[in-house]
Design brief:
With 459 residues, the chain is of the alpha+beta class. It contains 23 helices and 13 strands. Helix 1 crosses helix 3, helix 13 crosses helix 16 and helix 18 crosses helix 20. It holds the Pfam family PolyA_pol_RNAbd.
């Protein structure tokens, strides 16, 4: 980011204006000088239009974020500079509108002077999150989620007044635009390296206003498979996934790089984390008790419906919503295959793989985290090793399935030329080729040609 700061200073020097770096950049640098913030926020005291013009001359792409508030974003070489016109008559007045004191510290460019009217540095030193004013959270309840993200990321705690305002204001969070709620919520999961997010959000009464059935899940769940309530189990599965990301839990066949793929702006590991916690949410609606027998039949399918609605309400992207829904829906599938001890395993595996294909590695990881969370507390029959070995076998078989699809001996055009098939027939024939290749019944192109002629005759 140094070249961005140098560019801003160069413009200030020529225009005789003033600018101040504020917010996360200053906070993160004060916490640890080696931190490399992703962007810079500045307050500009001067002719902001002239400043923007000069930035464009330096090859920055500049666009308006909030025209009515005089907020702009400039981007160069993947570095982001957010610019806001000074609010009020002074910097101190401008800083008074910010959320927390640790975000209301400014650095005056040109003379590198720290301006800290609300004792933000003192609060940083004592690891306290404190509001700039008594109205900070009341003015914008989404700041409750931001406070939690900062607390989780940096190991900080809330001042007593801030804590009270969080507890009192949580029920109003969903009154705000869901895009803002999503952005702050998913960043909590992105920054949570210790698996604390959901228990901390629940502790302050925030989670209950974001996700339904939290209180119910805390009092059900104990059965012949679980000695813990459903909420505790869900949280353990989430923690296990964090351990997988950190390399502390391992399953053979998993490539951790799959979690770096992105859906929209955020890596898929954030959505996987949410699925890990949410996987048993359907138990709240599927709980039945007959004498001493407790069951949750159908909780996977019901959970998929519930979490789809939750994702929609929280502003998740459609692709992310579908991803989470599929994982919750299928999280019991691998365990069911293992327990049923199917003889024709290739047929059963193909049914699973073809149904969920791109989601399979994530489903297997979720199943692994789920099984480990259960068996780490209660495993009287020593089943965990057997289940994990089965999951590793599924990883290996899925690799063979993908190889079969990727090395198709015939493509769609060849199928048309050889059989005269049309539309849905083509799709069916190609799927049959994939299936039989995975089964090991097709080993080369000649065998594939013989097979498809037979398939075409039977259609």
């Amino acid at each position: 980011m140094n070249f961005v700061i140098d560019d801003v200073k160069d413009i200030l020097n020529r225009n005789n204006d003033f600018a101040y770096i504020v917010g996360g950049y200053i906070r993160d640098k004060l916490i640890k000088a080696k931190n490399v913030p992703k962007d810079i926020d500045i307050i500009y005291d001067g002719d902001i239009q002239l400043f923007i013009k000069e930035l464009r001359k330096k090859d920055y792409s500049v666009f308006e974020l909030k025209q009515e508030m005089g907020i702009y974003r400039a981007v160069k070489e993947n570095k982001t500079l957010d610019i806001a016109k000074l609010k009020g008559d002074s910097l101190e007045e401008d800083l008074s509108y910010r959320d927390f004191t640790i975000n209301a510290i400014a650095l005056k460019l040109m003379d590198n002077k720290i301006i800290d009217p609300y004792k933000g540095r003192n609060h940083l030193q004592n690891r306290i999150i404190h509001e700039v004013s008594e109205e900070s959270i009341k003015d914008d309840r989404v700041r409750i989620l931001r406070a939690h993200r900062i607390a989780i990321k940096y190991g900080m705690h809330f001042s007593k007044s801030c804590e009270n305002h969080i507890i009192d204001g949580s029920k109003y969070i969903k009154d705000y635009p869901k895009e803002r709620i999503f952005n702050e919520f998913i960043r909590i999961l992105e920054d949570d390296k210790e698996g604390k997010a959901f228990e901390e959000l629940e502790r302050y009464g925030v989670l209950q206003h974001l996700i339904p059935y939290i209180d119910e899940l805390k009092v059900i769940g104990k059965c012949k498979y679980h000695i813990e309530d459903a909420f505790t189990h869900m949280n353990l599965v989430y923690k296990n996934f964090i351990e997988v990301l950190r390399g502390r839990l391992y399953i053979k066949g998993l490539d951790l790089n799959i979690f770096d793929k992105k859906i929209g702006e955020f890596p898929i590991k954030c959505y996987m984390a949410f699925a890990a916690f949410s996987h048993d949410i359907g138990k709240a609606k599927c709980y039945t008790k007959n004498g001493d027998k407790v069951s949750f039949i159908g909780h996977d399918k019901e959970g998929a419906k519930i979490i789809s609605e939750v994702c929609s309400e929280l502003g998740f992207p459609k692709r992310a919503q579908k991803f989470i829904e599929k994982l919750v829906e299928a999280h019991m599938y691998p365990l069911g295959l293992c327990k049923n001890k199917v003889k024709n395993y290739k047929k059963s595996f193909y049914k699973l793989f073809s149904r969920y294909d791109e989601y399979i590695p994530y489903i297997l990881v979720l199943s692994f985290c789920d099984i480990h969370a259960t068996k780490m507390l209660y495993d009287p029959d020593n089943e965990e090793d057997e289940f994990i070995a089965y999951l590793e076998r599924l990883f290996k078989e899925y690799s063979l399935y993908r190889q079969a699809k990727e090395k198709r001996f015939l493509n769609g055009s060849e199928v048309i030329e050889l059989t005269g098939a049309q539309r849905e027939e083509i799709k069916y024939i190609l799927e049959e080729l994939d299936r039989l290749t995975y089964y090991g019944e097709i080993k080369d192109k000649e065998e594939a040609i013989k097979i498809i002629k037979g398939i075409r005759v039977s259609l």
